[in-house]
């Protein structure tokens, strides 16, 4: 049995190992496809390079998710090339993804950003709810003041007595006593 090669101290299941497997298999497939057509070899090379970038977590053209759609975007091919023509490459990709226990770095970063945005959204929603309550309270106060104003105007029209409020008294030191 051939032992897997672990370069740079990588462990089985790590992205570098999966990327090395993808590179090796892609190279072998591309070489065998060169016998058939150069176009197939170029597609296999593009898919292999895309697999490596996605598995390592450094996408160039896609969102970095470990899906066939992202793999096709990353390779610059239509998705049906993976689902109908190069099904072995698609299966290899899914097997390598499954062998990894971790998500790529970009997926972790997107997940962290999503968590932060959800917290901000929750705070903004709570602040909005508090402002809505203040608006409702102010509307009630304005309504009460309008009712009181209407009642005062009505009582003034009916001959009610409206008295002016006393003005503030002046300071006793400012008064001059009369003699």
Characterize this entry briefly.
The chain is 68% helix and 0% strand. It has 179 residues and is mainly alpha-helical. Helix 1 packs antiparallel against helix 5 (87-99) and helix 4 (79-85) crosses helix 5.
Protein described:
The chain has 179 residues and is mainly alpha-helical. Helices cover 68% and strands 0% of the residues. The chain contains six helices and no strands. Helix 1 (15-36) runs antiparallel to helix 2 (38-56) and helix 1 (15-36) packs antiparallel against helix 5 (87-99). The chain is rod-shaped. The N and C termini lie far apart (126 Å).
SSE arrangement:
Elements: H1 15-36, H2 38-56, H3 68-75, H4 79-85, H5 87-99, H6 105-157
Helix pairs in contact: 1-2, 1-5, 2-3, 2-5, 3-4, 4-5
Mean pLDDT: 77
pLDDT under 50 segments (min length 5)? Answer: 1-13
**Beta fraction:** under 5%
Radius of gyration: 38 Å
Number of domains: 2
Question: What is the CA–CA distance across the termini?
Answer: 126 Å
Largest sheet, described in full? none
Protein traits:
disordered N terminus, 6 helices, rod-shaped, 2 domains, 179 residues, mainly alpha
């Amino acid at each position: 049995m051939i032992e897997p090669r672990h370069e740079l101290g990588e462990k089985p299941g790590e992205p570098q190992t999966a990327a090395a497997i993808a590179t090796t298999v892609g190279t072998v497939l591309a070489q065998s496809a060169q016998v058939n057509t150069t176009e197939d070899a170029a597609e296999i090379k593009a898919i292999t390079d895309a697999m490596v970038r996605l598995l390592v977590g450094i996408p160039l053209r896609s969102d970095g998710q470990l899906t066939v759609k992202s793999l096709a975007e990353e390779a610059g091919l239509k998705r049906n090339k993976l689902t109908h023509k190069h099904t072995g490459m698609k299966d290899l990709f899914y097997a390598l993804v499954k062998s990894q226990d971790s998500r790529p770095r970009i997926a972790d970063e997107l997940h962290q950003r999503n968590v932060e945005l959800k917290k901000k959204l929750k705070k903004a929603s709570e602040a909005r709810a508090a402002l809505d309550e203040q608006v409702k309270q102010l509307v009630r106060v304005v309504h009460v003041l309008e009712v009181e104003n209407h009642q005062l105007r009505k009582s003034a029209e009916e001959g009610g007595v409206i008295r002016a409020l006393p003005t503030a008294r002046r300071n006793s030191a400012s008064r001059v006593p009369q003699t």
